[in-house]
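Renewal narrative, Specific Aim 1. Our central claim is that a sequence can be written position by position from structural information alone. The example that follows is taken directly from our test logs and has not been curated for this report. It begins with the structure tokens describing the chain, in the order in which they were read.
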């Protein structure tokens, strides 16, 4: 559509259209003026001819000399015999009857005609003719009337002349002005077009790679260009600040992760060192040795669990997720739910294996369920739904425990966050890492009476 056309074409076309409209308006005005002038000249000439005829027909009317009057009328009409449409001359007597005419067959003698305009109109138009009526008034007594009827075609030759002249003038003017209008229109639109071309690049390219349009004027387009340049500069500064903030946040998260890991490892290490010190001081009795070995084993297992939780990027050898894997998770989580005297509402429509690693999916499901179990109040409700829809495996875990505080949302999936109630403080972080590893999405919605975690993992088959 024309409104969707680029301004690089729209402005030149608008200038050209304005020139064409102006040329057409001038041509119409000139033609109308020429037509009116020719009409006035024809009427004035007809009145003069009518006045001459009126003087010449006084005596024939008085003497009822029809033949003499006919010769006079025919002489006037015959003066335009070269015309394909000569004027018609009709002479009326005092009673309004045809006394004589240049076309006796059309207007018989003594007939009454109503073809012409009403009496009293000296100038009038009847259909495609101009009519002039001149009374015959010798000695202030009206003895008849001369009527001259001219075809409007007599007005066309000057109109054709002015049309040809105007057409050639318009062509010459357009030949000169159209290239100028096209060049000027594109030049005026160039800053706006450059601005429009640069805007989509703001979101796709760094600010330093965007070719900013130059400010070539101080009009509205120049002001818009200046504001755009300022916006790109401010956006570049904002992106740099955001980049530094992200770097700072990542370093802070890494520091919290390191501190949390150090804490999780130092605790069992401290217990193990204490057990060894006690063993050395009190000797190698059987009971003490067994107790020390048991402490060492528990400490090493705790350290192993902490390190294993950090290895979410490891490619574990595992079979595709099956309905049995989902049911195994239900079986594993039921004892924990019963300890809280809670109710587990379970729904799964997985009825065939899926192209997802069972170990990681089970770990996600167990982490979310353990988190919900420990967050729910005594006698509360936990709901778990696992289904497949639109090429996605969807896992939804809900509980009606205390809602998550708004201040904890920003650090919800960070390691050792306050909301993560898993044993090692890494449950939600591990879940998030697994979901990201498989290009899925995880979301949380928490308000009084309901906390919901939703995971979507793409399935290839």
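The sequence written for that structure reads:
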């Amino acid at each position: 559509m024309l409104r969707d056309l680029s301004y690089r074409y729209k402005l030149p076309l608008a200038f050209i259209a304005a020139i064409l409209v102006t040329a057409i308006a001038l041509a119409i005005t000139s033609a109308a003026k020429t037509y009116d002038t020719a009409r006035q000249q024809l009427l004035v000439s007809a009145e003069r001819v009518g006045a001459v005829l009126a003087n010449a027909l006084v005596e024939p009317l008085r003497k009822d000399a029809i033949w003499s009057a006919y010769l006079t009328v025919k002489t006037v009409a015959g003066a335009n015999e070269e015309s394909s449409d000569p004027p018609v001359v009709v002479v009326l007597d005092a009673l309004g009857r045809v006394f004589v005419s240049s076309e006796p067959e059309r207007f018989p003698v003594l007939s009454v005609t109503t073809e012409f305009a009403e009496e009293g109109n000296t100038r009038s138009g009847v259909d495609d003719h101009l009519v002039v009526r001149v009374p015959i008034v010798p000695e202030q007594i009206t003895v008849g009337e001369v009527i001259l009827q001219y075809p409007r075609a007599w007005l066309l030759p000057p109109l054709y002349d002015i049309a040809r002249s105007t057409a050639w003038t318009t062509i010459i003017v357009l030949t000169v002005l159209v290239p100028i209008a096209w060049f000027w229109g594109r030049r005026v639109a160039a800053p706006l077009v450059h601005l429009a071309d640069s805007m989509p690049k703001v979101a796709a390219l760094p600010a330093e790679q965007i070719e900013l349009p130059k400010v070539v004027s101080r009009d509205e387009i120049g002001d818009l260009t200046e504001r755009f340049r300022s916006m790109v500069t401010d956006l570049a500064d904002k992106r740099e600040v955001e980049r530094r903030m992200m770097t700072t946040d990542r370093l802070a998260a890494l520091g919290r992760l390191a501190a949390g890991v150090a804490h999780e490892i130092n605790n069992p290490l401290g217990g193990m060192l204490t057990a060894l010190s006690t063993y050395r001081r009190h000797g190698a009795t059987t009971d003490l040795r067994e107790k020390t070995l048991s402490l060492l084993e528990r400490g090493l297992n705790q350290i192993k669990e902490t390190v294993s939780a950090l290895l979410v990027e490891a490619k574990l050898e595992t079979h595709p997720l099956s309905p049995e894997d989902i049911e195994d998770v239900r079986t594993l989580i039921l004892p924990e739910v019963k300890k809280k005297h809670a109710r587990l509402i379970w729904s799964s429509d997985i009825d065939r294996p899926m192209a997802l690693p069972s170990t990681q999916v089970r770990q996600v499901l167990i982490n979310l369920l353990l988190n919900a179990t420990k967050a729910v109040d005594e006698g509360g409700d936990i709901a778990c739904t696992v289904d497949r829809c639109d090429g996605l495996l969807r896992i939804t875990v809900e509980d009606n425990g205390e809602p998550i505080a708004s201040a904890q949302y920003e650090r919800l999936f960070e390691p050792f966050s306050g909301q993560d109630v898993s044993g090692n403080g890494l449950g939600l972080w591990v879940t998030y890492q697994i979901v990201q590893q498989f290009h899925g999405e995880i979301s949380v919605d928490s308000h009084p009476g309901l906390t919901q975690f939703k995971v979507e993992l793409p399935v290839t088959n």
